[in-house]
Design brief:
10 helices; single chain; Arc Repressor Mutant, subunit A; mainly alpha
């Protein structure tokens, strides 16, 4: 019901005040951005929270949306409905984040399996599918650019945070985050091509 209610409210036309703010924003007026941020933050955060059920991730997505609005402020003048625009961005980023979480979950399960397989004997057929999965994942990681591959392994296999990785490989925290996002996007596509193998392993 909450999503329906949000959708109905977003169907309303953008007010003259919003149009004026968007005009000022397109001209680089920081105070116009601050007003749009204050007015729309709760709506954006609530929509993300309803879809994700995670306050932390909803907060991250909300920040990303407003950061993008500011970075692309020159294009703000073409926005016809600011609330609808922001809500559509919420849906897009939530869908993108959920797909990323699925890849992270698959990779985490794979790492846990590797640890347990070294201790607990497995049935031959399970060993076969696990071995195939390992090859598939490692083949995907091996196709990443060297610096990106190193950042991904340090993050997922050694558990280092973005700051630590940046210091080790000599790049900024933002660049490390970009490496991880790009790696996950590539691996998602790579694993999607081997969906039957994943089903065998996780059923």
């Amino acid at each position: 019901m909450l999503l329906i209610s949000i959708g109905l409210r977003l169907a309303l036309n953008t007010s003259n005040t919003d149009r004026h703010l968007l005009q000022r924003l397109s001209e680089g007026d920081k105070s116009a951005f601050d007003e749009l941020f204050t007015t729309n933050y709760d709506m954006v955060y609530s929509a993300a929270l309803v879809m994700l059920k995670s306050p932390e991730i909803a907060g991250d997505i909300t920040q990303d949306i407003f950061l993008s609005l500011w970075e692309n402020r020159q294009k703000a003048i073409v926005i016809e409905n600011i609330k609808g625009f922001l809500y559509n961005n919420v849906k897009f980023l939530v869908h993108k984040r959920l797909r990323r979480i699925k890849v992270e979950d698959a990779y985490t399960r794979y790492l846990k399996y590797k640890e347990s397989a070294a201790i607990t004997p497995r049935e031959p057929e399970n060993l076969l599918s696990a071995s195939q999965l390992q090859v598939t994942i490692q083949q995907g990681i091996a196709q990443l650019p060297p610096q990106q591959q190193r950042a991904f392994r340090l993050s997922r296999e050694q558990g280092l945070n973005h700051d630590q990785i940046g210091q080790l490989i000599g790049v900024s925290k933002k660049t490390v985050k970009d490496y991880i996002v790009r790696s996950l996007a590539f691996l998602r596509q790579h694993l999607a091509q081997h969906i039957r193998l994943l089903l065998l392993f996780f059923l």
